[in-house]
Amino acid sequence: MVIKTRLTELLGIKHPVLLAPMAMVSGGHLAAAVSNAGGLGLIGGGYGDPDWLQSQIAHAGHARVGYGFITWSLAQRPQLLDTVLEQQPPTVMLSFGDLVPFADRIHAAGVALTAQVQNLAQARQALEAGADIIVAQGGEAGGHGMSVRSTFTLVPDVVDLVEEGAPGTPVLAAGGVADGRGLAAALALGADGVLVGSRFWATPEALVSPRAQQQAIRANGDDTIRTRVYDVVRQRNWPPDYDLRLVRNALIQRWHGNEAELLAQLPEAVSAFQKGVADQDFDVDTVLVGEDVGLINDIRPAADIVAAMVTDAARILNRDNNIQSASESPTIIAAN
């Protein structure tokens, strides 16, 4: 099945499904698997380890992949942007920071700039910076983001804003998308595609330990929480506007809401955390996944996830009469 939108046209891909560039999870193998399945995989540049980034570029092989960075961290190692622009990717995605210092370099390389936003103010700033694609991320998402908006309401708000200020700019939905129902809902809300994290986190290609993945399979959305505790104990100095969603455990239960006490006992807490990570003790370490973790019941290859997501979305949207097989000339199916 083929679903075409403005996103697939802009990026030259078959399916409107992008891999979220999850830090230290979305490596070259996973990004290549999503791209080879017809979506677009994005390697997560994370906190800026140049050796790791080079190794993942190599692991992607000849697959056409994009890249994503934590913007405030990229500002500390701006040379990493040159590393990925040399690959001539279809897009570079920036999240959690000011796009302006990087936008001109990305555009000068002939690469589309994707900007992830968590509210309307950030969406306006992204358009002013010249973003070619906007990702509207709701608070349901795993990992870092904001708690203020849900995907279901943020996406149409951003779609309307973009149509007014920069008509034709594709919008993606992120946060809570794990299957064809999520893709169909995103398209119905006016988005041109989806950015998917947690569902691809639970794949054999992801850089995630099997034990961590089994922890996620046993969890549901009610088990997740947004907190800053995890960043404190692993000593990641994130801007105060951002927290992250993860599966709660004994560590989070102990310190969430007691951050002042945690800071007072930080050396001991950090030492205990580091030992827990080394031992894969999930009462201490945890998994960074979204509220859609309850929809994840198995570890499946990324290609299977892409295919099932698109097929199910097409069925749900009742577009069977307008969707042709990939062997035929595909019909353009716009999201808007």
What's the overall average pLDDT, rounded? 92
Sheet/helix structural class? alpha/beta
| CATH homology-level superfamily of the largest domain | Aldolase class I
Portion in strands: 5-15%
How much helix, percentage-wise, in residues?
40-55%
Please indicate the count of domains: 2
Give a quick summary of the entry.
GO terms for molecular function: nitronate monooxygenase activity. The chain has 336 residues and is of the alpha/beta class.
Q: Can you put this structure into words, describing what you see?
A:
The protein is an alpha/beta fold and 336 residues long. Helix content is 40%, strand content 14%. It folds into 2 domains: 225 residues, Aldolase class I (TIM Barrel, Alpha-Beta Barrel), CATH 3.20.20; 70 residues, no CATH class. The chain has 16 helices and 11 strands. The strands form 2 sheets. An 8-stranded parallel beta sheet has the order 1-9-8-6-5-4-3-2. It has a 3-stranded antiparallel beta sheet with strand order 7-11-10. It starts with 5 loop residues before the first helix and ends in a 20-residue tail after the last helix. The protein is globular. GO terms for molecular function: nitronate monooxygenase activity. This is Oxidoreductase. It holds the Pfam family NMO. Keywords: Flavoprotein, FMN, Oxidoreductase.
